[in-house]
Design brief:
The complex is a heterodimer of chains A (322) and B (344). Chain A contains eleven helices and twelve strands. Chain A is α/β, with parallel strands linked by helices. Chain A has two domains: 242 residues, 3-Layer(aba) Sandwich (Rossmann fold), CATH 3.40.50; 70 residues, no CATH class. With 344 residues, chain B is an alpha/beta fold. In chain B, strand 12 and strand 13 form a beta hairpin. Chain B contains twelve helices and 14 strands. Classes of the chains: A alpha/beta (322), B alpha/beta (344). Chains A and B meet through helix 7, helix 8, helix 9 and helix 10 of A and helix 8, helix 9 and helix 11 of B.
């Protein structure tokens, strides 16, 4: 399969007045053509930072310490600004978490979708308007609402506008950053079905960022679990959810109340999420890990291949697999 | 506790035809809670689920007296709560408490944890400041496992999970019998969420508490509740034992809601049909007298739009549904399952 996006050893640091925040600490990630990858982790795991780095859009106090991100073989950090701008919104598009803040309140939704087309595809105003109507229809928003402002739409419809704008240029990669977190379950189901359909129809690759394991399981082929700025387990969604190897992934699945099985008690992961301003030595998860061994406290494990569909970064998992 | 045995005793909390309307200037009457009746028995958890804007939090607020009800009755062990509140019956205030959704805004940022926890005792004049109060607070901290060194901290110094523990401790301070939990875990991370749910369940066993657990997350509600009520647009559309709600779901809205939840799939054939509801929740401003769910319903028939709204009626012991066609909903669901995903 053709490699579309390749992230190698990405490290991102933010400097604040008081401290240094190590948000991403060596992420390796590959997305192939028309593949869907889910990036899952708790708040502060570095999911969004990774996504922002892909578009080279980190906040001003953020700095890429090392690593590279290649889109179709070209490094986004070395690209001239103009070329990068051409890629953003055209080849790689992003769907944001909060559709109210990601849409501009003073433009109609029609204008905002058309803007993408006019800028990237150099369409005339009239062509863009026609294309916008088609896009709105594709996300099941009635055509006559093209002249309405975002404020006149409900949360779910706003997110559908965001998706319409995202797929307008037929991108090769869609990055969806918690696209349904702000929405209700029934609306979430609508958006997920829509994303699935869009991905199939346009043959797009998808990077889905979420903390909801269920969404990943239903929408993505592969999953990468992030903790404290590193990917600690990676593989096909089926394999990872059926036999999770990393104690953190096991903990996450145990902490999740589910509809079908009869868990008497949820297994809470002890302690709290590692503080990115002061990360522990060795394995970043060791202070919370019940299988912590001597070497875990000072040696950082590296990603090992268990089989074709499963990779894990943990000494304990390696030993028990032997 | 099964419904059968529960029916013979007086419920701890009983709501009868509760209504809460808000007047929206120039627009009409917003029916936030429209004729809701339920009861919570001793030691039991009643889960209240629904989407945003369905009035589930308003129910909690009306029960707690944070909103005054437009009409209806609320009984605590058979005693009229609204009347007692008008007479400023402080005794009753102690028996009913609430845990709020957002542990960031529900704790006063200018007060230390110790001060926050001592307020209920001082306001209710249970004991004056001094060693006795300190004892009470440390007892409370032991109960919910707040480390003593945190007492001198301010809320912003704690993480979300610990803040919610403080919120729970505050609610427990006066030894209530009934607690409204208004989305207590929805702003927390999964691993922390599990800790809070476990804590709430442990406390329930230890102190024989009853909960009204309001949440939009069905899997959380299923885990913690004995019975579940599903709300839609200000009304309860289905209420039953949790087993029945999940195995014998009858209302088309509950069926759709259950099918909409993304699940972690471990086996290939685990995923059933997903019923995707069209459109959004309609406005609760002056709703029609017909079935409120009909415009979004996937099995609505013509007469659903013309017949008067279905009433919540008991269709099997302890299982109440408000739908004209509840008998055929499961059959329709089966058909949908064979067709895999249906989209309407």
């Amino acid at each position: 399969m053709e490699k579309l996006l390749e992230v190698t050893d990405l490290r991102v640091q933010f400097k604040t007045e008081r401290s240094i925040v190590n948000a991403v600490n060596g992420v390796n990630l590959t997305i192939h053509k028309s593949e869907s990858l889910g990036l899952v982790g708790e708040a502060g795991a570095g999911k969004t930072t990774t996504a922002m780095a892909i578009l080279n859009q980190l906040a001003n106090n953020g700095k890429v310490l090392s690593g590279d991100i290649r889109f179709k073989g070209e490094s986004v950090f070395k690209m001239p600004k103009r070329q990068l701008q051409k890629i953003r919104g055209d080849k790689i598009s992003m769907i944001f978490q909060n559709p109210l803040t990601s849409l501009n309140p003073v433009f109609t939704v029609g204008e905002q979708i058309a803007m993408v087309l006019r800028h990237h595809k150099k369409m005339s105003a009239k062509e863009a308007r026609e294309a916008t109507k088609e896009l709105l229809k594709a996300v099941s928003i009635p055509e006559y609402r093209i002249n309405d402002y975002p404020i006149q739409f409900s949360g779910g419809m706003r997110q559908r506008v965001g998706i319409a704008a995202g797929v307008a240029c037929n991108p090769e990669l869609i990055i969806a950053d918690e696209p349904t977190t702000a929405l209700d379950v029934t609306i979430q189901a609508q958006i997920l079905e829509l994303l699935k359909k869009m991905q199939q129809d346009y043959n797009t690759s998808l990077l889905m960022i979420t903390h909801n394991l269920g969404i990943i399981s239903e929408l993505c082929e592969r999953v990468a679990v992030m903790y404290a700025g590193r990917i600690i387990e990676y593989g096909t969604a089926k394999e990872v959810f059926r036999s999770p190897l990393h104690p953190y992934t096991q903990g996450l699945l145990g902490a999740l109340p589910t509809l079908d099985d009869q868990k008497e008690r949820l297994t809470a992961i002890p302690g709290r999420v590692a503080n990115p301003q002061n990360l522990p030595d060795g394995c970043r998860f060791h202070p919370r890990c019940q299988h912590c061994m001597e070497q875990c406290t000072h040696l950082a494990p590296i990603m090992r291949k268990i089989n074709e569909d499963h990779y894990v970064e943990c000494f304990y998992a390696e030993e028990s697999e032997k | 506790m099964s419904i059968e045995t529960a029916k013979h005793e007086t419920p701890l909390i009983e709501a009868r035809n509760l209504k809460k309307y808000f007047k929206i200037p120039h627009k009409g009457m917003l029916h936030a809670v429209d004729d809701v009746s339920f009861s919570v028995y001793k030691g039991e958890t009643l889960g209240l689920v629904g989407e945003s804007g369905c009035g589930k939090s308003t129910v909690g607020n009306v029960v707690m007296g944070l909103h005054s009800a437009t009409s209806g009755e609320l009984l605590f062990k058979g005693e009229d709560v609204f009347k007692a509140r008008r007479n400023r019956n402080h005794e009753l205030y102690r028996k009913m408490q609430i845990v709020f959704q957002d542990p960031y805004s529900s704790l006063n940022p200018k007060k230390t944890i110790k001060k926050i926890l001592s307020e209920p005792f001082l306001i209710q004049k249970i004991c004056p400041k001094g060693p006795e109060l300190d004892d009470k607070i440390s007892e409370l901290c032991n109960l919910v496992e707040i480390p003593a060194e945190l007492l001198s901290c301010y809320p912003h110094e704690l993480d979300g999970g610990m803040r919610q523990v403080v919120g729970i401790a505050r609610a427990l301070s006066l030894r209530p019998e009934f607690i409204v939990c208004d989305e207590p875990v929805s702003s927390l991370d999964v691993s922390v969420q599990a800790k809070i749910i476990n804590l709430l369940m442990d406390l329930q066993k230890k102190l024989d508490l009853s909960y009204l657990f309001v949440s939009h997350d069905l899997s959380v509600v299923k885990h913690i509740s004995n019975r579940i009520a599903v709300m839609y647009l200000g009304q309860i559309v289905e209420i039953a034992d949790k087993e029945n709600i999940f195995r014998q779901t009858m209302h088309p809205y509950s069926i759709a809601l259950l099918s909409a939840i993304p699940k972690v799939i471990k086996d290939d054939n685990e995923r059933g049909a997903r019923i995707v509801l069209k459109g959004d929740v309609p406005s609760p401003l002056d709703p029609p007298g017909t079935c409120r769910f009909a415009p979004r319903c996937w099995m609505a028939r013509e007469d659903c739009y013309t017949r008067p709204a279905p009433e919540l009626k008991e269709v099997s012991p302890g299982h109440c549904v408000a739908c004209h066609y509840y008998q055929i909903s499961r059959e329709m669901m089966k058909k949908a399952e064979t067709a895999n995903t249906i989209q309407i």
